[in-house]
Write a structure and sequence with these properties.
By secondary structure, this protein is an all-beta fold. The protein contains no helices and eleven strands. It has strands at 3-7, 10-13, 18-25, 36-44, 51-57, 62-64, 72-77, 82-87, 96-106, 111-116, 120-125. The strands form two sheets. Strands 2, 4, 5, 6, 9, 10 and 11 form a seven-stranded mixed beta sheet that branches. Strands 1-3-8-7 form a four-stranded antiparallel beta sheet, with no helix packed on it. A hairpin with a 6-residue loop joins strand 4 (36-44) and strand 5 (51-57). The protein is elongated. 27% of the residues are buried.
Length: 126
């Protein structure tokens, strides 16, 4: 069973910084039958659809939304089984619930599926 536990959300003024953490666990991450997995952060603002923020592969390749490039950085610490999202120069439009995500791919009938954390609220005041 996979568990993703986020922390680090809160209230910050515009221009400030926050670092989100997501502790991940579960045997699936070390399953020899697994093709690959990817960790990431998504966010959902009030009244809007959930959107991609940043992802990182097991090889350390990252991908980020244009709206956060140059301000947010995703990273991972394999020894601590934790993925981070460093958020700098925060804007009011970054206000959202931020979700940790793990995507798994099996090269068999299981295919691709995702697991989500419970979310952590980030509020940026102007």
């Amino acid at each position: 069973q996979v568990q993703l536990v986020e922390s680090g959300g809160g209230l910050v003024q515009a221009g400030g910084s926050l670092r989100l953490s997501c502790a991940y666990s579960g045997e699936m991450f070390s399953d020899v039958a697994l093709g690959w997995y990817r960790l990431g952060w998504y966010r959902q603002a009030p009244g809007k659809q959930r959107e991609l923020v940043s992802t990182i592969t097991t090889g350390g390749v990252t991908n980020s939304a244009d709206s956060v490039k140059g301000r947010f950085t995703i990273s991972r610490d394999n020894a601590k089984n934790t993925v981070y999202l460093q958020m700098n120069s925060l804007k009011p439009e970054d206000t959202a619930v931020y979700y940790c995500n793990a995507g798994f791919y099996y090269p068999d009938e299981r295919g691709y599926f995702e697991v989500w954390g419970q979310g952590t609220l980030v509020t940026v005041s102007s």
